[in-house]
Design a protein that fits this description.
The protein has about 600 residues and is an alpha/beta fold. The strands form four sheets. It has a ten-stranded mixed sheet with strand order 7-6-5-4-8-1-9-10-2-11, with helices on both faces. A four-stranded antiparallel sheet has the order 15-16-17-18, covered by helices on one side. A two-stranded parallel ribbon has the order 3-12.
């Protein structure tokens, strides 16, 4: 009997241990925070209020006031390379997306790491989080491949609604460039038709809320990736948001650039007294007529309205999480894929431009600017103001193209406003997210196949004050995109910007003391310049960075690639018909002779 009693006690204690273990595991699972990763598109460094903007962004301001804002955070200077690194933690030249596929020349595209689509040699953080018990959702722009095996539904996201191209209209399902036959939207891996009341920012938040609500009762944490179309071209906004900024930009881009520099200094985003360069692509505001100034001012008002509308819808998501008691257990990460977009001429109402846009069913009329059927951009002059006080903008390796806002906020993040000026890079975001979720990154294999290892570093030690920087004075970060290149080491950066805005020469800057890149230190510090150039060559060799063909032009290449992609079948048929005609003609001539 005593023996049976002992066995009973042992069974009871074993069962108790199992129950305790299961409970502890469930509690640990429940304690893991939700994570919302919000990505703006083409948002300049000073385009939101916490970074010096006049644009009303209360939702993002609230996150900044409750968390950490990074003032020295860098991305790639173009969308797809950033998105690939943001989701994998692997350099763009190793993950298959060193440039947007639309501008990759055929000499490079024949190489496996230059396809412009996310390779299967990398694993996304969505896959890793899903494996660890997270729900994973995505609503927004993807641009990492549109074949079934490359869509986000097959890359770790359990629910998706996504636009697969560089961009699309914000009011209806139509392409914004003639290189696309249609706007390619997908939901859970299948082609998708947008609703008739579509506006991009509102719709994407609606879908994110829908996805989160669908599993809210099961106790599992979620990872929601929300890459907005705002403020990518075409720049469009609901009238009530644009109206708030009518008259705000009447003084022009030069005045705006100076105002934002002063405000950013006041907020501590940049050091006091820093200089700014005068961009060669910025025109003289005073040289325009009153009517032209009025038109340009409204272009920027629509842009501001689009940023405001994005923030308004972020606020809706925050309110939903608060109403459903999920806010306190959610970490928010907000950033941009690159700096401000300078595409678009300063004379959008010129007859050739209007004819070209009319063929796509777009107008540039002042009264309807930003509304359905309107094609709007801000052009290079206002783009420089959007990046104030930095130099250059999207596509270029200047700080205006690569340095963007980064806000991280949530209960596990220090609950007071904090500015961090330590260098950070886009590949650090995946490592940070995995540490927040208590998920280990894979080594060099995943799903039975070899993969590229993540190179980024978690920013949590920096956020919690355990270290002053995550990269030492000797660590280097290399970068190249479409012939524009940079290398970061400590407080210094070497940079090469190609034509037409750049001079295709290497320059050296201290980007902490001189974020505006106004004081080239190449002649003062030739040894440092040479050492950093040597490091860049090592980076380029290690990551298989390919040279560009002679006379490469990204705009011409995008047209060529677009025509080839859209009209490939017609071109092949035309070549075949021509070949047959030549054969018949040759045979006919032979018989005549």
């Amino acid at each position: 009997m005593a023996r049976l009693s002992n066995i009973g006690h042992q069974c009871f204690f074993s069962l108790l241990l199992v129950i305790t273990s299961v409970c502890q595991s469930s509690m640990a699972q429940a304690a893991r925070p939700n994570i919302v990763l919000i990505l703006a598109d083409d948002l300049g460094f000073s385009d939101i209020a916490p970074y010096g903007s006049e644009i009303h962004t209360p939702a993002l301001s609230a996150l900044a006031e409750q968390g950490v804002s990074f003032t020295n955070y860098h991305t790639a200077a173009s969308c797809a390379p950033t998105r690939g690194m943001l989701l994998t933690g692997v350099d763009s030249h190793r993950n298959g997306v060193p440039n947007i596929p639309e501008t990759i020349p055929p000499e490079q595209a024949e190489h496996a790491n230059y396809r412009g689509t996310l390779g299967h040699n990398v694993v996304t953080i969505a896959s890793l989080l899903q494996d660890s018990g997270y729900h994973t959702y995505m609503a927004g722009k993807w641009h990492l491949g549109k074949t079934p095996d490359l869509l986000p539904f097959r890359r770790g996201f359990e629910r998706t609604v996504t636009m697969a191209d560089t961009g699309a209209d914000n009011w209806e399902q139509k392409p914004y460039l003639p290189i696309y036959e249609k706007a390619n939207w997908f939901a859970d891996g299948e082609e998708y038709t947008l609703p008739k009341d579509f506006y991009s920012s509102r719709f994407l938040v609606d879908k994110t809320i829908e996805f989160i609500a669908s599993n809210a009762s099961d106790g599992q944490p979620f990872f929601a990736y929300l890459p907005f179309q705002a403020v990518h071209i075409p720049v469009q906004a609901p009238q009530e948001f644009t109206d708030k900024y009518m008259g705000v930009y009447d003084a022009g881009w030069e005045a705006l650039r100076e105002q934002r520099r002063a405000r950013a200094q006041e907020l501590g985003i940049i050091p006091p007294g820093i200089a700014m360069v005068d961009a060669s692509t910025t025109n003289d505001w005073g040289a325009y007529t009153i009517d032209e100034q009025r038109y340009h001012a409204k272009r920027m008002a629509v842009y501001a309205g689009m940023v405001d509308a994005m923030d308004h819808n972020i606020g809706r998501l925050v309110a939903f999480l608060k109403d459903t008691d999920q806010y306190e257990n959610t970490v928010f990460i907000f950033t941009s894929d690159n700096g401000s977009e300078a595409s678009g001429v300063d004379y959008p109402r010129a007859l050739p431009v209007r004819i070209s846009l009319a063929l796509q069913d777009y107008t540039t009329d002042y009264d309807t600017l930003g509304l359905k059927g309107s094609f709007n951009t801000i052009g290079p002059s206002f783009a420089s103001a959007a990046a104030s006080p930095l130099s250059y903008y999207k596509f270029y390796a200047g700080e205006g193209g690569m340095r963007v806002p980064l806000i991280i906020a949530g209960k596990s993040i220090p609950q007071q406003p904090q500015l961090l000026n330590a260098f950070a890079y886009v590949t650090d975001i995946p490592a940070t997210i995995l540490e927040i979720a208590n998920v280990d990154p894979p080594a060099n294999r995943y799903g039975g196949r070899p993969i590229e290892s993540m190179t980024g570093r978690s920013l949590l030690p920096l956020i919690h004050g355990q270290v002053e920087r995550v990269y030492s004075e000797t660590d280097v970060i290399g970068y190249e995109l479409g012939g524009n290149a940079a290398l970061f080491q400590g407080d210094y950066k070497i940079v090469l910007n190609d034509a037409p805005a750049g001079d295709n020469k290497w320059h050296l800057y201290n980007i902490v003391a001189d974020p505006g890149e106004t004081d080239d230190l190449s002649k003062q510090m030739p040894k440092r310049l040479q050492e950093m150039l040597d490091h860049y060559q090592e980076y380029a060799l290690k990551n298989s960075v390919l040279p560009l063909p002679e006379n490469y032009n990204p705009w011409r290449q995008s047209v060529y690639n677009g025509i080839l992609s859209r009209f490939r079948l017609q071109i092949l048929l035309a070549v075949l018909v021509l070949f047959i005609l030549v054969l018949f003609f040759t045979a006919y001539r032979s018989r005549r002779q």
